[in-house]
Amino acid sequence: MRARATAAAGTVLAAALALAGAGLLATVRADLVASAASATRQQAETVAQLAVQGRLTPVLHAGHGTDFLQAVDAHGTVLAASPDLSGRPALTAARRAGSHTTHDVDPLHDHHRQRLTAVTTDTPDGPVTVYAGTSLRAADEALDTTRAALAVGCPLLLLTGVVVTWRVTGHALRPVEAIRAEVDAITGQDLHRRVPEPGTADEIARLAATMNAMLDRLEDTGRRQRRFIADASHELRSPLAVLRTQLEVADTHPDPAVRAELVHGALQDTDRLQGLATDLLLLARLDAGGGAEDRPRQRTDLTGLVAATVLGRPAGAHRRSTDLAPGVAVDGVPLWLGRLLTNLLDNADRHAAGAVHVRLAADPGRGVAVLDVEDDGPGIPPADHERVFERFTRLDDARSRDEGGSGLGLSIARDIARHHGGTLAVVPAPSGTRLRAELPMAAPHR
């Protein structure tokens, strides 16, 4: 990139210098020639006025900016001339009256260009043409000097521009190389490392900040995965050990009634293991970007889904009530939306003292459906409002695993809400606990 940038800058600079040099030479040449032509024309017109007035003398004296003069009548006879053209024949044939022409000639044979101006005027003795000329030696010398200066200056400017571009580009890309080297050295075992951020507040600084933000997310993901694996191993180890113990005792116990009771307990532990494995697989799919996203979404009647889920639950010790707004619809996967609601209801049933209330409303101003699941239990301390959504979290460590669940229900519910573009959080309630899910509503039918 450094070489390409330098080559591109050098090419552009070379083209610009070439155009500027050509333009400068053309301008200088035009100005010098125009100045010489103006001086000779003015001198020729002055001599022509003398001829008209009959005051023309045989010897003409050239003024400033003019090297030679000559006056010729209509028959080609030289009437007057400057000393350097004395005895010379007429330069050209007489011109039409009133004409002004300019030519490149060399009457003095000094091997330099000459600028000749002819002015024809009418006199009492007939038409007279006055020729005034000057050498362009000074102009040629000035052009030669300009060419020499450009021949030396342009390459120096080009070289300076290329060197400066090479060094500036290298200095600008040095932080990029430092970022690349650091990223290349980072492995899965040292995600705590970060790329250097130059304090320049430019695009490279923003790139470094973005890279570090990405590394923060990768480190957080890796930490969560390691914690998930450790928690899953811990959660699976205990029920497996209990199940093995029950089966070993049942296998050797002589009392059939005890064996039947042990086998029944083993079946219950197997059901809990199966549910835990299902939850772990679902979390793994959600973490990998799957779950609800890899299934086709459809317009779902959330009002009907909530009513069917609440009514379809087996009767329990708690009173359940609903307050559902009609016609609330969202775009999503009904299976996963049902799982979200089931997990919220399971959590409410587990902690309620005597009542569970489900409320569904639409918020057209924000375009979301608001689902509240509230219980009259002991509530969640404000400091734990976020911790309850962490995996394998049980706020009451004294509870048994049968009563407290696996600690994955609310985590799964929040992940499902996020995959549908919504949120799940604990919100203040007069008493007990209120969990609120907000999901984007489906676009109205046209």
Biggest pleated-sheet summary:
5 strands, antiparallel
Our estimate of the beta-strand percent is: 15-25%
Structural class: alpha+beta
Overall mean pLDDT stands at: 82
CA(first)-CA(last) distance: 53 Å
**Which bin fits the share of residues in helices?**
40-55%
Poorly predicted parts: 93-104, 397-404
What do you see in this structure?
This protein is α+β, with helices and mostly antiparallel strands. Helices cover about 50% and strands about 20% of the residues. It has a five-stranded antiparallel β-sheet. It has a five-stranded mixed β-sheet with strand order 7-9-10-12-11. Strands 6-8 form a two-stranded antiparallel ribbon. A hairpin with a 4-residue loop joins strand 9 (about 355-365) and strand 10 (about 370-375). Helix 3 (about 205-250) packs antiparallel against helix 4. It starts with a helix and ends in a 6-residue tail after the last strand.
Structure described in brief:
Helices cover 51% and strands 18% of the residues.
Keywords:
single chain; 446 residues; alpha+beta; five-stranded antiparallel beta sheet; five-stranded mixed beta sheet; rod-shaped
What are the SSEs and their pairings?
Layout: H1 2-52, E1 68-73, E2 78-81, E3 100-105, E4 114-123, E5 126-135, H2 137-185, H3 203-252, H4 256-287, E6 298-301, H5 302-312, E7 319-324, E8 329-332, H6 334-351, E9 355-363, E10 368-375, H7 401-404, H8 409-419, E11 423-427, E12 433-440
